[in-house]
Sequence to fold (332 residues):
Amino acid sequence: MTEWPIDWRAVVDEAVRRRKREGLSQRSLADLAGVSAPTVNAFEQGDINLRFTGIVAILQALGLFIHSGDADALESFIYDGRRRWEELIAPLPNDHPSRQPLGFSEQAYALEGIKPAASPKQLRDILAELPVTSGWSPFWVPTRDAIRPMIEEGQVECWLGRPETDRNFNDAAHSDFWRVRRDGYAYLHRGFQEDGPDNLEPGTIFDITLPIWRTAEVLLHAANLAKALRGNGESTVHFRARYSGLEGRELISWAKPRVRLGADGRYRARSTQIDLDVLTDVEKIDTALDVVVEEVLTPLYERFNGFELPEDLVQVELAELRRQPGFGVRRF
Fold:
């Protein structure tokens, strides 16, 4: 008999709690897990006669099941990053902007074919010297003591949403949490810019251009870090992302009104969450970034009533990203 018996009712109760916390209906969870709504209902009733693959799919969709082994090291790293973020925000009121209560994205990557940094301190120095990509680059390394990255559990970690700090922007869009490991694993938790103070109705819209910029910037960060860690064009980048809080949002051109969609309110998300995944390499990021970004984001836009991401839109936005003042310039 096992020394650690599974309390199945406790597992089910935790799954139900997480589903409700994420704002998911049973049908939405079924869509995410790739199972039927009756299967989710039976699971939540405590039915132990369901197919094991269905149970695993439900638990995975809720972040409650992690495969073991090297192939799933990135998934485990993301899980740990998510739990760490939840630990940090736990004392905050439910509506605190640093909780990113209306929606957020998670972006992570793992590098292979690199030489790990000698120490967390060296890694922090390397991160501080990587080229910037925009005015709000991912994995930003602030120097102010109150928010500068710290060494936690052997990783470089930064949380810009600390409630005790004096911030210029006290909103979900400027409350990034990130952590990076010496061997080239990185995790970023970001609130939606659409939920910032510039939008009178937070939680109602999803901008068409912002995911292109944000995805490209994280991929560029991965390529730059790989080079700094003695990688080359063949160094691989395993990229994963999750967008949560999508349900009910309308896809519009908000950040750049000049971009014409012709949507007329027809493109609205019906499910709250999606996971994205791509395996690429440094050379492809350097030479065909638009192709990689389009591959990553196509399933995201399809969640908005089947919207098809225009190929030329990705190319135009990435060209504009590269024209930003200071793009590619090292911080120090």
